[in-house]
Amino acid sequence: MPDHRIAKIELDEATILWRNADIEQERRIAIFDLIEDNSFRPVRAAEKGADGPYHLSLSVRDGRLVLLIADVDDAELETLVLGLARFRRPIRDYFAICDSYYQAIRKATPKEIETIDMARRGVHNNAAELLLERLDGKVETDFATARRLFTLICVLHIKS
């Protein structure tokens, strides 16, 4: 029976230039949640008989997102390359709202925190929808998985 899910995920540590404790926590939670529950079916690999689970490595090279998909024995199944131009604004907006959220947690009222968190979730959800569009025909996945993957894409874009 096919097991179309990500069993292991790695980020190219050379791509990540800097991260603070808040971002490191976001990364850990996204990876934990992703491994615990996800749906991930690389279409071409599945059509060639790959039935999962998969190992996924994410990196950014030459302004493009590289998804290296392998089987559990780390044999490469396929590499997807997605242009990141359409993600620049959502990533920038997500960083800005997250920064406001982290500051609010430390000194704002619960109502202010809730308002910022709702905006943060909205930006995150819109970016996950965009990722689903970009993966269409390449990877079949669900919204929750796309949302967590977007978090990890953001981690790859952190500059000091």
Number of helices: 5
Task: Return Rg in Å.
Answer: 16 Å
SSE class = alpha+beta
Main beta sheet: 4 strands, mixed
Q: Total strand count, please?
A: 6
**What is the overall pLDDT average?**
91
Show unreliable segments.
Answer: none
Give me the strand/helix succession. EHEHEEEHHEH
The proportion of strand residues reads: 15-25%
Pfam families: UPF0262 (PF06793)
Family: Belongs to the UPF0262 family.
Organism: Blastomonas marina
Protein name: UPF0262 protein GCM10010923_19270
Please describe what this structure looks like.
- With 160 residues, this protein is of the alpha+beta class.
- Helix 1 runs antiparallel to helix 5, helix 3 packs antiparallel against helix 4 and helix 4 packs across helix 5.
- It has one domain.
- The strands form 2 sheets. It has a 4-stranded mixed beta sheet. It has a two-stranded antiparallel ribbon with strand order 2-6.
- It starts with 5 loop residues before the first strand and ends with a helix.
